[in-house]
Amino acid sequence: LTVQVDDGRSRQDAQVTINIRNTNDNPPIVENLSVVIDENKPNGFEIGYVTATDADKDILDYQIISGNTNLVFAFPDSHSGTLTVQFGTLLDYEIIPEYNLIVQVSDGYFQTTATVSINVNNLNDNMPLVQATTFNVDESAESGFYIGTIFAQDADDDTLTYSIIQTIPSNAFMISETTGNLYVKSELDYETQPAYTLTVQASDGTYQATALIQVQVYNVNDNAPLAFDQTFTIKETALNGASVGFFVARDIDKDPYSFDLTIESSVFDINPGSGEITVIEDTSLNNELTPQYELSVRVTDGKFMSYAVATILVIDGNDTQVVYNQTFSVQENSPKDTLFGTISVDAPAGSRQFIIGSGNSNNAFALDPDTGKLTVNNSLALDFEAIKTFHLNILATVNGDVHQPVITINIKDANEYAPVFETNNYHFYLDENSSNGADVGTVIANDLDTADKLSYQIMTGIPYNPFYIGTNNGQLTVNGDYLLNYEFVQAYTLTVSVTDGLHFNDTQVLVSLNDRNEFAPQFASETFEYTVAENIAAGSYVGKILATDDDPGSLLLYRITAGNEQKIFQLNDIGNLSIDDADGLDYETQSAYTLTVQV
């Protein structure tokens, strides 16, 4: 201020300065903040800036007063609004997906709060977890049978895909990629494989995890007892109750089984439990009248039955020979130690000794030297496809006397090979609109088990199945009239299965339809009308004649059939109409032309 003093005669000025002292009378103003941040950010990562102003220009102090669980965030400089990550290892979407921090800003006297909303962005940073599980399934379960669901989880809630990356010992199962449902893929057999170990993988697209899945196969009664043709001898002098021998059978399901004769015999009987054949009418034993009996023996396990023949040779009472040629049978691939017969000796108990002299290729069989029991020694040597019959030359010493019978062993064919298609993919071509019963083609499968009968079936058809397959011959034919239309479906994909009653195999069949020219072309309009100047130049474009054909790929050709006798107009193959002879156009002579066009 300028201040003046006056005494009436003179004046004097002076300057007065008044300084306004600032006092803290305004609270800070703080803006709310909302940010999104990826989980797992490192310590010190800047999240954002909390904006605050103070009209008094006071130094501001920032602090988080609530919502900062686990102290994940911090203001490293309390006088700066820069908010950073303090403990990045705790910044985990799976722990806390959202934070609402209450931030206080103080100027030393006033305090103001604001909200900082932090949404944590979920990343794929967790490996899936797969639970090791044991499932049980009956060996009779068919292909496609649901066994159970693999349990897996992902902390990131990512979509998981499932796969079987290893199956020990074979590829007997399949898994749904999306659900983890486990299914039977091929036939199961408790007798050959009672348990499987699967390595199942779950993937979230970045990480993969595996677990061992055990599948225990339950034994069910799915095999008939194995009964073998066997030969016995009995002296015609034998009395009632005399033992002819024990009929040998076995059941690979280990089910109890019993014996009986399909046709009752008046001379012999068989014990239902032990299979021992005994004489019940000794007066009928006469070598001259009936030197041989054949008994049809039935073996049943309560569900399945098998049949075999017991051949009983009646020996002359005066015959000094006590060991005779005999015949037995055994199924190929029967396991080691399988008992399939006993060499019959028609002599009282005493010293006996049996030795295989020759004919035992690859040591296929073993012979008990004391009892004469015949068992399998090398199952790999029992291969019907390689050797169908063995002839063993036996040295049998009975009570000091040496005999040399020939033991014939017939190998029974087992269903051990799956049928195999001649190709994994067939491709047939067929005209559309083919009638019911029209031949498409034949799929052919072969089976190394020559005795097996094959049966064919269409399992699926995409988009549907308009075909029939001969069950016994694999011949594909059309199954109905008016089903095949190229304009709707150009090709069909079929899955065809073949079975020999035990094993299955599949092949893919592609049936492509040949398009037939069945539709006439149609003009886009019944009439086309164009206007041209009489002085138009030759070659000028007049218009487009348009037609369509419902037969895809048809090539349409256009031509003028009438009305162009003066050759004034020209129509090319694709329907473009143009002027050919412009000199002929004269409105005063002819003001309109009507052309007939054919396509």
Give an account of the 3D structure.
The protein is mainly beta. The protein folds into 5 domains: about 30-120, Immunoglobulin-like (Sandwich), CATH 2.60.40; about 130-220, Sandwich (Immunoglobulin-like); about 230-410, Immunoglobulin-like, CATH 2.60.40; about 420-515, Sandwich (Immunoglobulin-like), CATH 2.60.40.60; about 520-599, Cadherins (Immunoglobulin-like), CATH 2.60.40. It has no helices and 53 strands. A hairpin with a 4-residue loop joins strand 19 and strand 20. The radius of gyration is 49 Å and the shape is flat. The termini are far apart. The relative contact order is 0.06. The mean pLDDT is about 90.
Task: Summarize the SSE layout with pairings.
Layout lengths: L1 E5 L4 E5 L13 E2 L2 E6 L7 E4 L2 E2 L7 E6 L6 E2 L7 E4 L12 E9 L4 E11 L7 E2 L2 E6 L7 E4 L2 E2 L7 E8 L4 E3 L5 E4 L10 E9 L4 E11 L7 E2 L2 E6 L7 E4 L2 E2 L7 E4 L6 E3 L5 E4 L12 E9 L4 E11 L10 E6 L7 E4 L9 E7 L6 E3 L5 E4 L12 E10 L2 E3 L2 E7 L7 E2 L3 E7 L7 E4 L2 E2 L8 E8 L4 E3 L5 E4 L12 E9 L4 E11 L7 E2 L17 E4 L2 E2 L10 E4 L6 E3 L4 E4 L16 E3 L1
Parallel strand pairs: 4-11, 13-20, 22-29, 30-37, 39-46
Antiparallel strand pairs: 1-2, 3-6, 5-9, 7-10, 8-9, 10-11, 12-15, 14-18, 16-19, 17-18, 19-20, 21-24, 23-27, 25-28, 26-27, 28-29, 31-34, 32-35, 33-34, 35-36, 35-37, 38-41, 40-44, 42-45, 43-44, 45-46, 47-49, 48-52, 50-53, 51-52
